[in-house]
Amino acid sequence: MLLVSAPFVAAVPAQAAEQQDFPCTVDINKVDDELTSKVTFTLACDETRTVTAKIAVGGAVVNQRQTVQAGVAQSFTVTVNKVARLCAELETDGATTTACSA
Q1: Is 57 within 8 Å of 89 (Cβ atoms)?
Q2: What is the Cα–Cα distance from 18 to 21, expressed in whole angstroms?
Q3: For residues 50 and 65, is the Cβ–Cβ distance under 8 A?
Q4: Residue 41: is it exposed, middle or buried by C-beta count within 10 angstroms (0-12/13-18/19+)?
Q5: Which of 13, 45, 70, 89 is most buried per CB count within 10 Å?
Q6: Mind giving me the DSSP string for 18-85?
Q7: Is residue 14 pLDDT above 60, yes or no?
């Protein structure tokens, strides 16, 4: 099972994840219940950018594209069968980074 929720916009900055040469900050929050993991990715950029996230779980791959407005954090949530860790490869304007849940 792999579900992606509709994005929402929040007017608070995301906390920076450890990244190199990626122009946006990424914050990841994972919440587990007995059967599923809900992972929320929050992105914040200094300028408006289109960010693509490629998320692979088992045999399923989800590509999520977000237009992140300058100075505004934007989030999307993925719900999957329970996993210990979930990673996404993020790309914008040729720069890439991999962000993983704890």
Answers
A1: no
A2: 10
A3: yes
A4: buried
A5: 45
A6: S-SS-SEEEEEEEEE-SSEEEEEEEEEESS-EEEEEEEEETTEEEEEEEEEPBT-EEEEEEEEE--S-
A7: no
Are 83 and 12 within 8 A, CB to CB? Answer: no
Nearby residues of 25 by Cβ (< 8 Å), 6 or more positions away: 13, 14, 15, 16, 17, 19, 43, 44, 45
pTM metric for this prediction: 0.77
Question: What are the residues facing 36 on neighbouring strands?
Answer: 81
Residue with tokens 């989800």: 62
CB-based burial label for 65 (10 Å; 0-12, 13-18, 19+):
exposed
Reduce the DSSP state of residue 15 to 3 states and report it: coil
